[in-house]
Design a protein that fits this description.
By secondary structure, the protein is α/β, with parallel strands linked by helices. Strands 3-2-1-4-5-6 form a six-stranded parallel beta sheet, with helices on both faces. Helix 2 packs antiparallel against helix 9.
Length: about 220
């Protein structure tokens, strides 16, 4: 920022990306532009602690992410979870980012559903020691006002995006975004049924999926 030594935040967007689609990309773009992030790192998960193992292998999902963000300098395909052994705990990923960027603000980007399930995450109460939390939500969603999350929002919520630039970690910001009703699970089913995912994902992602038949129905 002009006249200061502050650095623009880095957004951290994790997920299976199995496959990545326009819903992911549009959310990341709106958050990057609205909150003035320097860039957003897409971090494909290796071994999700609370989900089924991704259907396609990490190398292919990384290739799909790279294809999806090609030509977008504000987006980075980040393999750190795929290169790490054991469950892909978010707290370990944030610690890795903080070691790499000791002073720069970090923003963990999550959706409404993930935020509501936050107390089930491994060492969830330490996340704000490493990063801000940016919750992307759809219109009409009401923030919890009781329990652990209600307490968290009362203590840490900010409605001023400048607070995400002023400190390296520690705040919660709730940001409305355009919600595209696209599901990776539904996409896999659609492709397995022999239907075309055109207009639901970038053409180069679609091309790789059709060429590799990675989501084709198995006998």
């Amino acid at each position: 920022m002009t006249g200061t030594n502050r650095m623009r935040p880095i957004g951290i967007f994790g997920g299976t990306f199995d496959p990545i689609h326009y819903g992911h990309l549009r959310t990341a773009l709106e958050l990057q532009q609205t909150l003035d992030f320097e860039r957003v790192h897409f971090v494909p998960v290796a071994t999700p602690p609370h989900q089924k193992i991704p259907i396609s292998d990490g190398a292919l999902r990384m290739r799909l992410v790279e294809a999806a963000i090609e030509g977008e300098p504000q987006f980075v395909a980040d393999p750190r979870e795929l290169e790490r052994q054991g469950p892909s705990y978010t707290i370990d990923t944030l610690a890795s980012f903080r070691k790499e960027f000791p002073q720069q603000p970090l923003c963990l980007l999550i959706g409404m559903d993930a935020f509501l399930g936050l107390p089930a995450w491994h060492r969830w109460d330490e996340l704000l020691d490493f990063a801000h939390l940016v919750v992307a939500h759809r219109p009409g969603w009401r923030a919890p006002d009781s329990g652990f999350l209600g307490d968290l929002l009362r203590a840490r919520r900010t409605q001023d995006p400048a607070a995400l630039h002023a400190n390296p970690a520690g705040r919660v910001h709730v940001q409305p975004v355009t919600q595209l009703e696209i599901s990776s699970t539904d996409l896999r089913s659609l492709i397995a049924a022999g239907l075309d995912p055109k207009f639901l994902m970038p053409d180069n992602v679609r091309r790789i999926i059709l060429e590799t038949e990675c989501y084709a129905e198995t006998p």
